[in-house]
Amino acid sequence: MPGIQHDRVRAFAAAAALLVLSGCAAFSPDRGFDAVRTAVKARTGQELTWSRTDRDREQALAAARKLLAAPLTPDAAVRIALLNNQGLQATYADVGIAEAGLVQAGRLRNPGFSFARLRRADELEIERTFIIDVLALLTLPVRTDLERRRFEITRTRVAAEVLQVAADTRRAYYRAVAAQEAAKYAEQVKEAADASAELARRMAAAGNFSALDHAREQVFYAEATAQLARSRQTRRAERERLTHLMGLSAHDIRYTLPDRLPELPKAARSGDDLEARALETRLDVTSAMQEAQSVAASLGLTRVTGFFSVLELGYQRNSETGQPRQTGYEIELRLPIFDWGGAKLARAELTYMQAANRAADLAVRAQSEVREAYGAYRTAFDIARHYRDEIVPLRKRISDENVLRYNGMLISVFELLADARQQIASVNEYIEALREFWIADVNLELAATGRSPGAMQTRPAGVRVGADATPVH
Could you report how far apart the first and last alpha carbons of the chain are, in Å? Predict the structure, then answer.
C-alpha cells in the first residue's frame, strides 16, 4: 500500500506540474493590438480602433459620421479610414490570430492515454498507459520564442498596412480636392467658350467675321465641352476612390470637400538624417530584421530536432488476474536510420541566409527610396512655389493690362477671352503642382517611417485646361 500511495503522489505531482506549465501562456486583454496602436500613433498621431463587436462598429460609424458633418480635412479623412475601412478592420484580426498561435505554442501538447482490457478464460488482464511527448516539452521554450517572433512580425506588418491605407487616403483626398477645383475652372472655360462661340456666330451671320476665325472659335467651344466632361468624370472618379478608402456606404457619401487644396507650407522640410530615420523607424525594414531573427531561431529548433523527431515517455500500470500489479515505463524514440536531418538543416541554413540578405537589401533600398522621395518632394515644392510666386501673378498682371487695353478699344473681345483662358490654364497648372507637392509629401513620410512607397509617382495622366483646351496625356 505505501508503494501504491507513493506512485499516486508522484503521478499527481507530475500532472500538476504539467498543468502549471501549460497555463503560463494566456491571451492579452487587447489581443496584442496595443503595440500596433502605439506604432501607428507615433508615426501619424492617429488613434486606432479595432471594432470586434457590433457595439464597437456602431460607435466607430457614429464617430465617422460626426467627422463627415464638417468639411473634410486630410486628417479627418485618414481618421475615418482607420475607423471605418472594413479591409483594414479585417487586417487587424491578423494580430489576434498571431497571438492565438503564440498562446498555442506556449501550451503543452495534450498527453495520451491508452487502455486495454483482455480476457482469457477466467483470467482478466488490464493495461493502462499514460503518454507524454517529452520532445515537445524539451523544445517548448524554443517553440514559444519562435512563435513570439512571428507574433512581433505580424504586428509590425499590420502597422505598416495601416500606414499604407493612411497614405493612400491622403493621396486620394488631395486628388479629389484638386479634381473638384479643376472641374470648377473647366466650367469657367466652358462659359467663356459659350460666350465666344455665340459672339462669333452673330458676327459671322452679319458678315463681319472670317470663316477661319469662326472655325477657330467653334473648335475651341467643342474642345472646351469635351474637356468639361473629362474634368467632371475625373472629379467623380477621384471622389469615389476617397469614398472607398474611407469605407463609406451609399448612406454616408454626402460629405463636403473644401474648395481648395491646403496652401504650401512656408518652407520645405529638411532632408537631414532622413536615411538614418528610415533605417530606425521604417516598419518594413523592422519586419525584415525580425524575419531574419525568426528564421535564425527556427534554425536552432531544426538543429535540436534534426536527429530525433519523436521522443515520447509512457507510464504503464497493468493488472492481471491472480498476479501482482505491474508498473513501469516505456520510451518511444524514432531512430535516424534513413534520414539524419541533413537536408532539413541545410534548407534551414539557406533560408536564414536568404532572409539575412533580403533584410540587408531592403535597408539599402530604404535609404535609396527616401533620397528619391525627398528629391521628388523638394522639386514639387519648388515648382509649386514658382507657379504661386511667379507664373500666376504674371498672368494676372497680363490679364489686368489686357482689360485696360480692351476698355481703351485697343484689343478685341476675342483677344480678351483668349487671355482669360490662358490665365485659367495657369491657375490649373498651379493646382496640379500643388497637388503633386502634397502627394510627394505623403510619399516622403511613408518612405521615411512606413514602408516602400513603390515607384515614385510622377504627375499622373490626366486632363488640363490650357490655352487651346487640348487634353494633356
Answer: 95
pTM: 0.75
Confidence of residue 200 (pLDDT cuts 50, 70, 90): confident
Dist CA 249 CA 155 (whole Å) = 29
pLDDT by residue (tens digit) across 438-459?
999 999 988 888 777 764 444 4
Helix (H) or strand (E) holding 245: helix 211-245
Residues 6+ apart with CB under 8 A from 391: 426, 429, 430
CB atoms within 10 A of CB 97: 12
Q: Indicate the pLDDT class of residue 166, thresholds 50, 70 and 90.
A: very high
Under 8 Å between Cβ of 170 and 446: no
Question: Cβ distance 299 to 354 under 8 Å?
Answer: no
| CA 43 to mean position of chain CA atoms | 13
Q: What is the per-residue pLDDT for 362?
A: 74
Cell of 165: 491605407
Helix (H) or strand (E) run with residue 272 in it = none
Given the C-alpha cell 469605407, which residue does it identify? 247
Query: Which fold does the domain 31-107+139-306+341-449 belong to in CATH?
Result: Outer membrane efflux proteins (OEP) (1.20.1600)
Q: What tens digit of pLDDT does each residue of 210-229 get?
A: 787 778 778 878 888 888 89
Burial of 162 (0-12, 13-18, 19+ CB in 10 A): buried
Domain ranges across the chain: 31-107+139-306+341-449
| Helix (H) / strand (E) containing 460 | none
Provide the angle, in degrees to the nearest 10, between the axes of the packed helices 413-449 and 274-281.
Answer: 50
Find out whether 36 and 159 touch, Cβ atoms under 8 Å. yes
